[in-house]
Amino acid sequence: MKWAATNFGHIVGSRPLDVITARSAVAVGELLSFAGPRGLAVSARGGGQALFRQGQAHGGYVVDMAGLDDVRCEPAERTLTAGAGALWRDVVRAALAEGLAPPVLPDHLGGSVGGVLSTGGYGGSSHRYGLVADWVREVEVVTGTGELLVCSPDRRPDLFHAVLAGLGQCALIVRATLALLPAPTHVRRYRLYYDSPNTFVTDQRRLARDSRFSHVAGQVRPDLAGSWRYMIEAVAPHPGRPSTERPRIDDEPLIGELDHDRDTEEIADLSYREYLHRLDRDERLLRATGEWDRPHPWFTMLLPEEAVPSFVPAVLSEDAQQGLRVCGTVQLRPLTGRALRTPLLRRPEGELLCLFSLMRTAPPGAPDVVKRLVDANRALYERARALGGVLLPGAALPMTPQDWRSHFGPAWPDLVHAKDRYDPYRVLTRGYGLWA
Ligand SMILES: Cc1cc2nc3c(=O)[nH]c(=O)nc-3n(C[C@H](O)[C@H](O)[C@H](O)COP(=O)(O)OP(=O)(O)OC[C@H]3O[C@@H](n4cnc5c(N)ncnc54)[C@H](O)[C@@H]3O)c2cc1C
Q1: In 155-190, which positions are buried (b, 16+ CB within 10 angstroms) versus exposed (e)?
Q2: Helices (H) and strands (E) in the chain, counts
Q3: 429 lines ligand 1 (CB under 6 A)
Q4: pLDDT in tens, 393-404
Q5: Spacing, Cα 160 to ligand 1 middle (Å)
Q6: Start and end of every FAD-binding PCMH-type domain (predicted)?
Q7: Would you say 434 and 369 are in contact if contact means Cβ atoms under 8 Å apart?
Q8: Higher model confidence: residue 248 or residue 21?
Q9: Residues with Cβ < 8 Å from 101, sequence gap 6 or more?
């Protein structure tokens, strides 16, 4: 029970009435047919990566999806079907065994299939291939009234589009079928450093526009002089095996015209599996130091690219963000509007976007510090919105129904319609706070 009351955020907790282990999709349906008419809150729990109230079901039921973890790969059809409680590392294992992989994967593979699809899911290849959710062929869901339904772009499309990046508002996902593509066996990874945000953005824009790299991400890192350095991490498939002697593929066509600092560039060859599991080592380290179990008042926005060179340095110079110099990560990665197709993923106007994420760790036993950082998130949210920025849902940020209404904008009426139809008792995933 204590387990269900908390999550990776370690900021807010609440006691559900009970935690139910999902043994089958039918059992989830039975629970909802009971809870729905009684108005009892129900939320799914997958990998437990929520940062705030998103996964909580105060006075209701948390459904532990971990038991729905079957993964079946169909290489001939290039698809994979996974239970919603399977983790992305289970998906990767099954797909790579057949030489295949989902076109987009979250960076960290410890999230659940259902949880990541409910927010949309971004990863290193999102500049080219959009969201994890953009590659879903079909989902099986349980609605707020306990109905078990299958939907796809052609079958009940209103429900399909209300579920993907739909924050668990209209149905709980119990199974998803994903498209796969052939996976490279090896990749070459480039880490390129910049002192100026303008040069960094110019090069990120180049890489987001063409397809020379399969994966492009970025970070802002503190330097010893008290300033910040910008880093592009770009990855391209290559045919060779990793070795101490780099295979003779020419780096020039990939990075020759870029304006990074040549003296500090880092180039490494990895198997694709190693690359996909790149955050496992960080997780082990953070678990060992205890940081994994501390409060995480994280905050992520999508920004119009032109706002980045002034907004990002201004934010990072603020007192509230100085903890990031010591621990945590600042992500700054390119996305392209045309690749993002899931309707409920809201995004800024324009073609070139940047995902800006402040992944902070607060000290243990210091609720005042956590509160200050959550307040700082709220202030940032307001400022970024004024520049055309859009929240990536899931942050450590209290949101009102009015905030959500303006967040979804033109997509709001369809979401309300789907909610009325599929969760008329409004019991599902209340922790996001969409409804009064
Ligand atoms: C260390 C870390 C790294 C991350 N990296 C990435 C990343 O690279 N890319 C990315 O896109 N996101 C990333 N995230 C965000 C994460 O993917 C989302 O928070 C996601 O919703 C987590 O899902 P979960 O099941 O693991 O978490 P949970 O806390 O179990 O669930 C999160 C939310 O999803 C709902 N949910 C869970 N299962 C279902 C279901 N079956 N049906 C409907 N709703 C459901 C829950 O009720 C809750 O509201 C990261 C988070 C962490 C903590």
Answers
A1: ebeebbbbbbbbbbbbbbbbbbbbebeebbbbbbbb
A2: 14, 18
A3: yes
A4: 999 999 999 999
A5: 18
A6: 12-183
A7: no
A8: 21
A9: 92, 95, 180, 181, 182, 183, 272, 276
The C-alpha atoms of residue 33 and residue 147 are separated, in whole angstroms, by 8
- Taking the centre of ligand 1 as the mean of its atom positions, its distance from the CA of residue 8, in whole angstroms, is 10
Calculate how far, in angstroms, residue 106's C-alpha sits from the geometric centre of ligand 1: 10
In the chain, the amino acid numbered 16 is: P
Report the CATH fold assignment for 2-65+420-432.
3.30.43
pLDDT digit string, tens, across residues 211-268 = 899 999 999 999 988 899 999 999 999 876 555 555 556 799 999 999 999 999 999 9
Domain boundaries, the chain: 2-65+420-432, 66-182, 186-278, 289-397
C-alpha closest to that of 133 among 108, 115, 156 = 115
Pocket lining: 166 vs ligand 1, CB cutoff 6 Å = no
**Mutation to probe ligand 1, out of 12, 49, 281, 285 (largest number of atoms < 8 A from CB):** 49
Which is the closest atom of ligand 1 to the Cα of 54?
49
- The dihedral over CA atoms of 253, 259, 262, 264, expressed in degrees to the nearest 10, equals -120
Establish whether residue 108 lines the binding site of ligand 1, counting it when its CB lies within 6 angstroms of any ligand atom: yes
The CATH number of 186-278 is 3.40.462.10
357 lines ligand 1 (CB under 6 A): no
Ligand 1 atom nearest residue 110's Cα:
26
Residues 6+ apart with CB under 8 A from 248: none
Which residue's CA is the nearest one to ligand 1's atom 34?
Answer: 115
